[in-house]
Recover the amino acids of this structure.
């Protein structure tokens, strides 16, 4: 047939048609042609040395853009290396799609080249997986993985493309009609709105609280809820505490920021309004001794499962931005503001001032050879001098990350990506590349421990190739 095309072209066309603009990965048999075809259709392919790092990049790209990050791998070992990125996206609840070529379906079970039951292998690390068993299934499978990655709680999805399917052919006109048909049936978010009685309850709890606290995390950042959060904080005068990646949704240097008085804020608050952050290890499971045993949690999360797991005083299932809009509407009718002389606000503010001045005294000392504080102060001051748009800060390595979290200042949303919920080390260079690709207008600054850097150090070459400039300073 004059207009016949193979499975590689069908897959590339499907990704391009359904809005994919970037892919991260490592090419080889049987997916090299897929990558080439994708590039011919205008998709930028970012080639890595190892699928692990490419997978980390895809996961961070999903978080930073709100669109699934795409990882392309070869079969067998390539797929196994990619599981690092896929699992990282699942645990952080970031949207990502891993696509792997797989061995010929007719040779499976006979010891074929790079043979693996990949659908089985990805199961514990993905929210949805599908194999295109025939070329005609490719468009629908592509749409399914792209949609499922972002629907509800975001996460990782997997698409298996067997070698024989990639080599099958079909007429171009048939593919066009398949694509149009699939496009019409694509799934979109259909979340029920939160009942107004629940919104009223949440606002009444905040209004009556003596020591309220607003906590927000990377789910709120993913939801792009920064304007709604800032309005809520400033209208009510309630102190706030960001999680590490929630930093910047409301600027760290805001007068109501409680980060420098974290122990007091979480230990003494009586109502905690937690938006897009799990009560997991990072928030001490919401339990004593770090939290008061009487604290009433109001949790806002897109995942009903999450609310059921934590059993808060009040759970609001929905998109953070939308729920906050409803909360703010409710407050607007009868606004309240604690004011700076409120005993709780004043106590937090006093503690913040004490702790900040203690830290500044330590930071003011130039310690050579460097300790952690001196270089971090230099980096902080340099970043602050750059103005807006502020750089994306990539941080990993246990000590570097911990000290950096308190010293480095985030004033804009989604400008910090770090080892995250899983404490995944080795993510740094992949995250740098993802951040540069996702935010071409922002500088990317990576502050990494040498161990974290070493996991994926070879990808520094990819940084050079795919970003316009890459400066590298190493303090042993
Ligand atoms: P952090 O590490 O910043 O504490 P977590 O990763 O623990 O944050 O929690 C993020 C939470 O945000 C997850 O439970 C996830 O279900 C939720 N989430 C993801 N997207 C949204 C959204 N659009 N609106 C509300 N919650 C969301």
């Amino acid at each position: 047939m004059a207009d016949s095309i193979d499975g590689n072209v069908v897959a590339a066309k499907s990704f391009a048609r359904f809005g994919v603009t970037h892919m991260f990965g490592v090419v080889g048999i049987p997916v090299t042609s897929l990558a080439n075809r994708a590039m011919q259709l205008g998709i930028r392919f970012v080639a890595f040395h190892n699928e692990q790092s490419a997978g980390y990049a895809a996961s961070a790209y999903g978080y930073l853009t709100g669109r699934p990050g795409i990882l392309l791998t070869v079969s067998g070992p390539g797929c196994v290396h990619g599981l690092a990125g896929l699992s990282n996206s699942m645990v952080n609840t970031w949207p990502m799609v891993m696509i792997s070529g797989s061995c010929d379906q007719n040779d499976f079970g006979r010891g074929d080249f790079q043979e693996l039951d990949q659908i089985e292998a990805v199961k514990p690390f993905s929210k949805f997986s599908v194999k295109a068993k025939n070329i005609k299934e490719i468009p629908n499978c592509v749409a399914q993985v792209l949609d499922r990655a972002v629907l509800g709680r975001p996460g990782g999805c997997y698409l298996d493309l067997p070698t024989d399917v990639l080599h099958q052919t079909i007429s171009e006109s048939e593919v066009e009609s398949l694509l149009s048909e699939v496009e019409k049936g694509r799934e979109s978010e259909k979340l029920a709105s939160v009942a107004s009685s629940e919104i009223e309850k949440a606002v009444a709890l905040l209004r009556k609280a003596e020591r309220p606290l607003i906590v927000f995390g990377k789910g709120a950042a993913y939801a792009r809820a920064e304007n709604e959060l800032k309005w809520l904080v400033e209208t009510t005068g309630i102190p706030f505490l960001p999680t590490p990646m929630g930093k910047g949704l409301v600027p760290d240097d805001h007068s109501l920021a409680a980060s420098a008085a974290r122990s007091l804020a979480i230990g003494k608050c009586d109502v905690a309004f937690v938006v897009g952050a799990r009560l997991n290890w990072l928030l001490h499971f919401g339990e004593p001794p770090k939290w008061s045993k009487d604290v009433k949690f109001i949790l806002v999360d897109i995942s009903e499962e999450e609310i059921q797991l934590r059993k808060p005083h009040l759970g609001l299932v929905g998109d953070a931005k939308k729920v906050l809009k409803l909360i703010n509407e409710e407050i607007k009718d009868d606004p309240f503001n604690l004011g700076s002389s409120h005993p709780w606000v004043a106590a937090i503010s006093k503690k913040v001032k004490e702790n900040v001045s203690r830290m500044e005294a330590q930071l003011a000392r130039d310690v050579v050879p460097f300790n952690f504080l001196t270089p971090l102060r230099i980096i902080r001051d340099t970043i602050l001098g750059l103005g807006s748009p502020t750089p994306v800060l990539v941080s990993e390595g246990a000590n570097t990350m911990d000290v950096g979290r308190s010293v480095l200042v985030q004033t804009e949303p989604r400008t910090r990506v770090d080892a995250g919920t899983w404490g995944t080390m080795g993510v740094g260079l992949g995250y740098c590349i993802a951040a540069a690709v996702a935010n071409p207008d922002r500088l990317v600054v990576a502050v990494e421990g040498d161990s974290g850097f070493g996991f994926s150090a070879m990808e520094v070459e990819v940084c050079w190739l795919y970003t316009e400039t890459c400066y590298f300073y190493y303090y042993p």
User: Anything to note?
Assistant: Residues 365-475 form a domain with the Rossmann fold fold (CATH 3.40.50.970). The chain has a mean pLDDT of 95.
